[in-house]
Write a structure and sequence with these properties.
The protein is mainly alpha-helical and 238 residues long. It has helices spanning 12-18, 25-33, 38-48, 97-102, 151-163, 169-192, 196-204, 215-233, and strands at 67-71, 88-92, 135-137, 143-145.
Amino acid sequence: MRTITKQGSGGYQLGKSHANPPLTGGQATSRWSSFVDKVNVLQSLLDEQYQLCCYSELRADELGLGYHIEHVENKSQNPLRTFDYMNLAASALDSENDLRVFGSDAFGGHALGKKKAVDMNRFVSCHQSDSQRFFAYLSDGRVVASKTLDEQDTDKANYTIDLLNLNSPYLIIRRGQWWAELEQLFQEHQEKGWSLDDLVGLELVPSQSLLRSFFSLTRQFFGMVAERTLQQHAPKLL
């Protein structure tokens, strides 16, 4: 889960609504349902996220999937933040078509766990400056708690993975396929003496303000080469 750096305010309509926020969960649900500027807010969120899902890092648009506006802190738990741009992110799976397909296997903001009460003291937010350090990616497609964490932070990582269903069958398959593809690319570059720096730049540096799926997995896979490349060509992503 890469850290999202918030930019802008989400626009006039969102700011106007946030100036007079709902006070109850019922009000939050009703007013959010009738909010008229969701399309523009969602686009602002996707722009600052390089089109990646805030939790899974999936490029949903490349896979024929949609996005929805995610309340990182659920609006039912904190109605005051319903229209707070700092509490919003773009999460994969739209609220209609995708949910009918995925059902109980939905992940990210539409995961069954995220719809319930969330312990924000245990939840790793995509807006945390250190969110990436909590997670590690395995060759079989799973995401797990990083081995570098202490007991408390390991609990946070595992809680977040389970809550968001980040090891859904769909995501495991997609990440596993991408890991295998990276291994093939790495081996080919090694055998032919091609530049790994060029390969990493292609996979990690934004192109037309877009990133490829599973940025953090790719960054972990290439290790120090990835850090060097990002430092040189995309320091904002470090």
